[in-house]
Amino acid sequence: MGHDHGHGHVAADGRRLRLAIAIVALGLVAQLVGAWLSGSLALLADSGHMLSDLAGLVIALVATIVAARPASGRQTYGYRRAEVFAAFVNGLVLLAVSLSVAVAAVSRLVAVGEHEVLGLPMLVVGLVGGATNVAALLVLRGGATHSINMRGAYLEVLGDLLGSAAVVVAAVVVLTTGFTHADSVGSLIIAAMIVPRAWSLLREAIRVLFGSAPGDIDLESVRTHIGDTPGVVSAHDVHAWQITSGATVFSAHVVVEREVFCDMKVDETLDALDRCLAAHFSVEHATFQLEPADHAGHERETHA
User: Fold this and answer.
1) Distance between CA 230 and CA 214 in Å, rounded?
2) Distance (Å, rounded) from C-alpha 145 to C-alpha 134?
3) N vs C: which end of the chain shows fewer Cβ within 10 Å?
4) What does pLDDT average to over the chain?
5) Global confidence as pTM
């Protein structure tokens, strides 16, 4: 059931990404033309961000297709971690775009004189870009809750929506006051809005790639719950990691009373442990090694 449910998500995510790619591509063409006509750096910056959105969506689509490939004898968990690599690349792209935008904006601010910026084309195209971002967000929203890959794509477009808002505000200032440096200030605001989202995405992807325990799982709490299971004495070599977002894997050596083996209660104990982790920690796959206390006493302990 979980396998079929996962493939249902993959198919739906693929459709969402294809539609979002088409929408963002149209918006990118409009913004590039508008940036050329208006001379707006903010609009050009937002076009660069939208280009990164498009690249990020394509990367996310490729990762979704790769992640759907079945497991094999060598790739025992399949290719689901491709989604995490895609999110990591998207985060790097977002940071690179924000840095380039900030450098260009500062260069224009410190330059002598003001650059010509046509406020009306800038405003119109900024509104068009914002509308395409909203449409793409509505398409991607359904997949952002269950996949780090889709969340990366969603954050790409959300950042660009905020950028479009900054472009519109800067255009209004240019039209009403003639202060063309508002365009460069808007570019800096766009860069500042991109960085936190990029860092958040990178941090989550790095946590998965390094095999860290998920942030919502406290291993001490896990040990306590395992220890409360009837027949269990203690637990050691406790590990939790993620294959991709939402796919937590768990393993532990569980010391049990000798009666668990003597009275044929192994199946009952394993079922109780599985139910415990599924109910309290949403663990997708758990592996337990049951061992009597005298075995645990001489086992070499190399992990937490």
Assistant:
1) 26
2) 17
3) N
4) 78
5) 0.70
